[in-house]
Design a protein that fits this description.
Ornithine Decarboxylase, Chain A, domain 4; binds pyridoxal-5'-phosphate; single chain; seven-stranded mixed beta sheet; Aspartate Aminotransferase, domain 1; 16 helices; alpha/beta; Aspartate Aminotransferase, domain 2
């Protein structure tokens, strides 16, 4: 029996999968009470009419928070919420899973608060999401940057080399944790297995921000999840690719983790709203349930088949290029980063949107990022490929195209002050033209993808100027 068939057989029909929060919300909906508690719109009875018309009465009538209607609590996890988190841990192969509101941002902040301390040194990849920087500013730990490979032609980051992590751990025995991002926004995959083996050798925990890889555990044609490769904690943005509602994510503590989940629990209790949305929590429960059904697995199969179809069509367009595994990196097939000769990514994005009604995930000066989602049908990809063919063979002019503009920062920072000291220092805002030689006091990390160009405590140099084209002024440490 092939691996695939085995995997499918171990999955369940949707009728046998449990979704405790969804079920509890349904029961609450079917058994309405006289409500004298928050939220004050009271099942949509006191809300702006046009908004109600737009989202529907039913959504508003189940917009509630924990503690009410036998829905359990998030902190501590009780009732259906506790059960749903346990089912998620099982599905993802974790010892413990926490549901996150405020996205993977909340997960990264909780990791920083729980597992790092003031003055500790933490190895972090320079192209991490800005939420990791925020976390370190809160905890007072200091990043020891590891700069991944760069793919200069595309102005994107490549993979994190395990040997670089080992060299840093060997050089400084006071490093307390390794915290990496995998995959990159554009789908470049690092060798987490080797990195995890190195972390174990040096006795330090490994945390992986796998925000863009939450489907990996559910299909063997996708890269392997860090939860199976020895990471101690993993963050997943279920809302990005896993089918839950915006701003919902999960933080997993792996089965053999050396990290203590009770400290994450405490941090999340402080970070989360005290009125968590049951609608959002139910959407996480539903996304996990969906991924456990045969129908959910089929959706992932379809996504991969569609991504392969798209890539094949794109390969046949002479002046269109795509990032793929034969660039020497492993990649996630569903994230398709492309460029067309003579067009900047921004221009391509606007042609796609204005002339073809197509919205892509993001655009840089170089290219555009297409996410092949579970919700996309084959006909969507046919239309996209047809449209790209037309654009690539057309005569589009690019008034935005500037040779020296690069979207991604490719520079190793010169650190003058600690992140936290610079962030809380007395500051002044000055013209960018006067900023060379000064110490940055702000986080400059545009979203998407939220990767830092300049951080508090770093020397501002003339080499950074091409990356700061959208800024007229910069905030610097005073004096
Ligand atoms: C690698 C990475 N980590 C974390 C985040 C934050 O995720 P969220 O938007 O779920 O808060 C992002 C967002 O783009 C990201 O790219």
């Amino acid at each position: 029996m092939s691996e695939d068939i085995k995997q499918k057989d171990s999955l369940k029909e949707s009728t046998t999968v449990k979704a405790p929060i969804v079920e509890a919300l349904k029961t609450a909906y079917e058994n309405p009470t006289y409500q004298f508690h928050i939220p004050g719109h009271t099942k949509g009875k006191a809300i702006y009419k046009d908004f109600k018309k737009l989202i529907g009465e039913k959504v508003l009538s189940i917009d509630t928070t924990d503690e009410f209607d036998n829905l359990g609590t998030l902190h501590p996890a009780t009732g259906p919420i506790k059960e749903a988190q346990e089912l998620a841990a099982k599905a993802f192969g974790a010892r413990k899973t926490f549901f996150l509101l405020n996205g993977s941002t909340a997960g990264n902040l909780a990791v920083a608060m729980a597992f790092t301390k003031p003055g500790q040194k933490i190895i972090v990849n320079r192209n991490c999401h800005r939420s990791i920087i925020t976390g370190l500013m809160i905890s007072g730990a200091e990043p020891v940057w590891v700069c991944p490979e760069r793919i200069e032609d595309w102005a994107i980051w490549g993979n994190i080399e395990a040997s670089k992590i080992e060299a840093l751990l060997e050089k400084d025995k006071n490093i307390s944790m390794v915290w990496i991002t995998n995959p990159t926004y554009e789908g470049v995959v690092s060798d987490v297995k080797s990195i995890s083996a190195i972390c174990k050798k040096y006795g330090v925990p490994l945390v992986v921000d796998e925000a863009h890889g939450c489907l990996w555990n559910f299909n063997k044609h996708l890269p392997e999840t860090a939860l199976k490769l020895g990471a101690d904690a993993v963050v997943h943005s279920l809302h990005k690719t896993g089918g839950s509602m915006s701003q919902t994510s999960m933080l997993h503590i792996s089965k053999d983790s050396i990290l203590d989940e009770t400290s994450v629990e405490k941090s999340l209790k402080l970070l989360h709203s005290t009125s968590p949305s049951l609608l959002l929590l139910a959407s996480l429960d539903a996304a996990r349930a969906n991924l456990e059904t045969k129908a959910g697995l089929k959706l992932i199969d379809r996504t991969i088949a569609n991504a392969k179809y798209l890539r094949k069509r794109l390969d046949a367009i002479p002046n269109l290029h795509q990032v793929k595994s034969d660039f020497g990196y492993k990649t996630d097939v569903t994230k398709v980063f492309i460029k067309i000769d003579g067009l900047s990514g921004k221009r391509l994005e606007s042609i796609l949107e204005i002339d073809f009604g197509i919205e892509v995930e993001s655009a840089s000066d170089i290219g555009v990022l297409i996410l092949c989602n579970m919700g996309n049908k084959r006909s969507d990809f046919v239309y996209l490929a047809d449209s790209l063919e037309k654009i690539a063979s057309g005569n589009h002019k690019d008034i935005y195209y500037l040779e020296n503009r690069k979207h991604m920062p490719m520079l190793e920072p010169q650190i003058i002050m600690s992140l936290r000291d610079a962030y809380y220092a007395d500051k002044e805002r000055i013209l960018k033209k006067d900023a060379t030689g000064r110490i940055s006091a702000e986080v400059i990390a545009e979203c998407p993808p939220g990767i830092s160009i300049l951080l508090p405590g770093e020397l501002i140099t003339k080499d950074q100027m091409p990356y700061l084209h959208d800024y007229e002024t910069l905030e610097v440490v005073k004096g």
